[in-house]
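Weekly structure sync, notes
Attendees: PL, DS, HV (note-taker this week)

Item 1: Acyltransferase
DS walked through the input record. Source organism listed as Denitromonas halophila. Sequence as pasted into the shared doc:
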Amino acid sequence: MGIRGRLRLWFYQSRRFGGRYRQGAHSSAILSKILIGKDAEGQIVLGDYVICAGELYSFFSKGVISVGDCSYVGQGTRIWALSRVEIGRRVLISHDCFICDNLTHPLNAQTRHQQYMAKHGFPFPERIELEERPILIGDDVWVAAGVTILRGVSIGQGAVIAAGSVVTTDVPAGVVVAGNPARVVKQLGTEQTMERGVVNGIA
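Item 1 (cont.): predicted structure, written out as C-alpha cells:
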C-alpha cells in the first residue's frame, strides 16, 4: 500500500469511523463500502490478508462484523449486522451474496411505514424491533455465488454452500448444502477440509 493509500486508510479509521474500523496487515477493502454511522457503537474488523470487495454495514450503527485472516468477500456481496456477524479464517464468500443477522424491516406494517418515512426526514422511532440474531461462519467455509444467509445461522468448519442457496438453519461442519431452504446434499471427506495449523506460511 502506497503513501496515499495509507493516508486514506488512516482517515477512514480515525476521522470517519473514530477507530471503529480496523484493517489488518496486507488486507484491502473498498473503503467507501465500509458503512458505520458517525456516532456508531458498532465495529468492523478485518484480519490479516483479507480482500473485501463487498459492502460491510454496521446496521443502525451498532452491529459488529469480524472477518478472519486470509478470507475473501466478493463483489456485490453485502454483509449487514445489527448484532454480530463473525466470519472465520480462510473463508471464501463469492459474488452477490447477502448475509444479514436481522429482519431489515419490522413485521408491523405501521412501524415499517415509520421506518420508511424516516429515510425522508421524518422522526425515527426510538426502537424498532428487527429480531436480530448473530451469524457465525466457521473456518474454511466456501459460500458460492448468490447465496443468502439469514439471521441466527451457524455454519460449521469446511462447509460448502452451493450457489443460489438460502440458508435458514445451522449447517454442520464438512458438508455441502444446496437449495432453498438449503439441505445437506453431500458429506465431504476429511481430506477435503483443512487441518488446524500453518497454511502457506500463515496460521
